Each structure stands twice: as C-alpha cells, then as structure tokens.
Amino acid sequence: MSSTSSLEKLPAETLQTIMIELADASALPSLLQSSPILYQTFKSSEATIVNKLLIKQFGPDMLTHALAAFRSFTLNPQNTQDIKSFTDNYYTKNPSIPRIKNLFEAINISKGHLYIQHFTSKFITTALSKQGQTRYNTTPIPYALSSTEITRIERSFYIFETYCNLFRSNENLDVPSFLSDEEQHDLIFSKFAPWEANQIGCIYTFLQTEIKPAYNDIKTHDIEFAGISATRGRSPLITTSQLLSRGLASIYEITQTLTYSSRYAAIFPPSNPSRHFPNNNLLNVLSCRLDRPHTRHINPLELDITSSLFPDEDCGPSEAWLRENENYDVRDNGLTLGGGSESMREWGYVFWTYSRLSSWNFFTPAQIPPPQQLPLSPHSLADFQMQMMLLEQQSRRRCGYARRTDPGYSRKVLLFQAGGRGWWSKDDESRVLWPVGRPSPLDDKKARKACEKCNKLNEGRQKGKRKAVCVAHGLVLAMPKEKEGGEEV
C-alpha cells in the first residue's frame, strides 16, 4: 500500500498556491509528474494557475509582449487583415491582460524568456562598454540598472522577435512578400513613438554585431560561399539580414559557436538542405519615411512625435532621441533604423533614464569648433560638386575592381568549380574537402584527356603547341606538388 506524502495531504487551494509560487512554468512538469494528486489538482484549475504564475513572473505589461512573440510564431498570416488584427490587439495603449490557454503555452513562453534574458544581459554589458568610447567619454556609473531600463530592453527584444515571426518570408523561393516596407511600418511601427522604434533599431545593430564573428568566418573561409556567390553575380549566398530573420533562438545558436564546423552547421542547418533562407526587411521598415503615399501619415501635420505607446514616466529616451536627431524632420525623411548614428545605437542611447544620461553629460552641448567658411563662388561651388561626384564614382570603380581582383575570392571560386568544399585560407589549403576522399577528383591525367571542355578548347590546335585546359583542370595543375622531403616543386 503506497503512503501519501505530507504535501499531498494539503488542501487543493494550498497546493495551487504552491504551484503559483514556482519560479517559472518550466518547473511545473517535474512537480506534476511526482504525484497523481498534484496532477489532478493542477488540471482542475490549469488556466488559473498558469496565468497567475506567468503574471507573477513577467508582470501584466511584459506578459503581453511575451505572449505576442509566442503566438505570432504560430499565426501564419494569410493577408493584411490578419496581421492588423494581431497588432491592434497587442500594441495599444491599454491592452487587455492576455489569457494563457494551457501549460504548453506557459512552458514555451518561459523557455523563450531565457533567450530574452541572455541577450538583455549581453546587450547591457556591451552597451555600457561602448558608452565609454563615445564623445561623452565618461566612466559609466557603477550603480545597477533600474527596472524601467531593463523593461525597455526586454520589451524591444520581444518586439523584434514578434516582427520576425509576422513578416518572415522566403526570398530565395522568389515569392514576393504581400506587404511593402511602408505597409509593414503602418501595421506595427507606426503605433510607436520614434524613440520606441529606434530602440528596436538599437537591438538590430547589437544582434548584427553578435553574429558577425561567425558570419565573417564563413564568408572569409568557406569555398561554397564564394562559389555560389560568384554564380549569382557576387550576391552573397546568405546575408546577416537573413540570419537575423530566423529569430532569437537561431541567433543564440549562432553566437554560441566557436569553430568553423559548428558555425557552418548553425548558419546552414542540415534540416534545410534546399537552402531556402528566410528574410525580412526590418532595416528598411525602420528607416521608412513617414510621409510616403502608402503610409497612414499622409498629412505631415497630423503626425504626433511626442506621444509614447508604452507607459513610461521617465523622459530619458524621448529627450535623448530629440537631442540626437534635433535637426531631423521626422515627417519628411527616413532615418536609418529609426535614428541616431551607428555608434549611438551601439550603446543604446534611447534606453537609459534621464538621470543616467545626465550623469554621462549627454545633454551638455559638445564643444565642437565652428566649420570654416570657404569663399566659393557659384561657379567654383559647381566645380567642387562635380569633382566630388567624380571622386565618388572613381572610388566605386576602384572598390569593384578590388573585389574582382581579390586573389582570395578568385581562388575560392576556382576551388568551388573544381569540386572543393569546406574551409580555406590563403596560407592553408590542406583542409579543403574533395569528393570520395581524394586530393582532387580532377587530379588524374586520364580524366583530363577525357574532359570535354579541355578537348573543345584544343580543337584545331597545332601539334607541338601547349595544350589548353579548362578552368577546373587548370586549377588542379596549378596546385603545388610536394617532393618526398616535403618541399614544394
């Protein structure tokens, strides 16, 4: 006869209170599996328990964003109205507290919050270290961040995740998105104040920086990346924008990799052999002009840049945004990622409280010497503008020529055409992978003699002349050979 534990003898109301006081919903399954009585007690009031537990963990406002990120993943919108109904429900000044349906939703929301916490902590550390490198070159104040600042950062990560879920598309399938950049802006970011949209821009800049070590490693050393990019007219096989479109879970996986093989597996997962990479236009959407014909801000005078969608008694973000973009007309121009220079976004200037910004002397006018006035006549000004235009064109041609003549890029393309794959470096080609374990499938005289491309090149060639070879075989013949002593010939 099985004995009943003292915990199981407690009243049902007490057991429910214990469940509500757990740290998060992911701890519930272990507790429920320990006893049939606990499981039955939970099932009798499942919705009430999980909702109270998550409200305690997140708070009503943050729970709204967490649930929006989760439900947007399974929304699968088919038209504009589906997205409009979703954003109108979750992004309003007084949203209703959402109801969690079951334990499955609660567990997934709690697990998703782990990524938010990780990136929030990393963003804070990175942003505060970047702050000391700005023109406000002061030592960061050592006191802890306020709950308001942490809430702003976590909320921005949740909105980023929600946007990725709502507007993710497969560009490589040549299926155009049914929404333009301006329409996407109207559906979600037009509801935000400019500094709130700029907070998402800061998050975007931070995440780009996070994935660059892995992305640059693949871009620099992977043969296939260069080979397929060459077939596309130098259009990259995959972009950082496509990587960010996958969402925070995939970004986290990429940022945790340290070796070439693990980075390759994270960027080109085996579960996606067709190489149909998702993409969205967050960079363009956040940079939209607000007076375009397709936006709802047709009349610039109706645009209100002073109201904030999310309740915030501190004026730090709004004052920082207005201070940094004071010469910008929000109605007539487009700001990159919502405003501020890249260096400003790197230290998250629109996240901090007014008191913290003041302690950094952010609002103190910078001592910049006035520019010298050049006595230019209308004719000399026109000549100067023409010279600047010609210099810009020349610079573009030089950059294009440098890319085309890059020996590393050209070498990777040739290796790709010869069948090579994997990691490459100009100082080490020993790690290039070839089919069936041979140094090269083309390093064979019989194969070269039977090559149709080589034979076509040598049609009508006189005897005694050096035979021509195709690009792939030319690559193999140009590879350094080794003597028995290990010296190259």
A few lines on this structure:
With 489 residues, this protein is an all-alpha fold. The protein has helices at residues 12-20, 28-33, 36-44, 46-58, 60-73, 80-90, 103-131, 147-167, 181-187, 194-221, 223-231, 240-245, 248-255, 260-267, 282-286, 316-324, 342-346, 354-359, 378-404, 407-417, 445-449, 452-457, 471-478; strands spanning 169-170, 278-279, 421-422, 432-433.
The number of helical elements comes to: 23
Tell me the strand order in the biggest sheet: 1-2
Q: Please indicate the percent range of residues in DSSP E strands (runs of 2 or more).
A: under 5%
Reading the helices and strands in chain order gives HHHHHHHHEHHHHHHEHHHHHHEEHHH
Number of strands: 4
Q: What number is the mean pLDDT?
A: 77
Helix content: 40-55%
Radius of gyration, in Å, reads 29 Å
Q: What can be said about the biggest beta sheet?
A: 2 strands, antiparallel
CA-based shape = globular
| Unreliable stretches covering 5 or more consecutive residues | 171-176, 292-303, 480-489
What structural class do the secondary elements suggest?
mainly alpha
User: What's the end-to-end separation, in Å?
Assistant: 84 Å
